[in-house]
Amino acid sequence: MKIAVFGCGYVGLATAVGLAEMGNEVIGVDIDEKKLGMLSSGQVPFFEPGIQEMLKHNLAEGRLSFSSDIHSAIQFGELIFSAVGTPPKKNHEADLSAVLNVAESFGRYGSNGKIFVNKSTVPV
Q1: Whose CA, among 42, 106, 108, 110, lies 20 to 30 Å from 116?
Q2: Strands across the sheet containing 64-67
Q3: The pTM is what?
């Protein structure tokens, strides 16, 4: 299956690497070009046992790649995961702007048959 995972932080990267390890073709999408460069070279910006080895393996196998191109990623994926951050605002409410941006992009660029999965922490 072809999958796009938006957000390459802890949750998104673990999801992307795990799905690639299962044999899926995965694009990890993020707005941070520096992070994308690190990930594309096999470096993980946080500690999670085994993730760096799986990242390198799936990069080498061609099942995992990284991009900042939202449109292409949505066109690529049959399944679109949103795992973007929801940091607290000054009033302690969740900042949902990144979640809403991904959802809006999916609405704009997605087509029939694509499935959207939200893994971001959002209020009910």
Answers
A1: 42
A2: 64-67, 25-29, 2-6, 79-82, 115-118
A3: 0.93
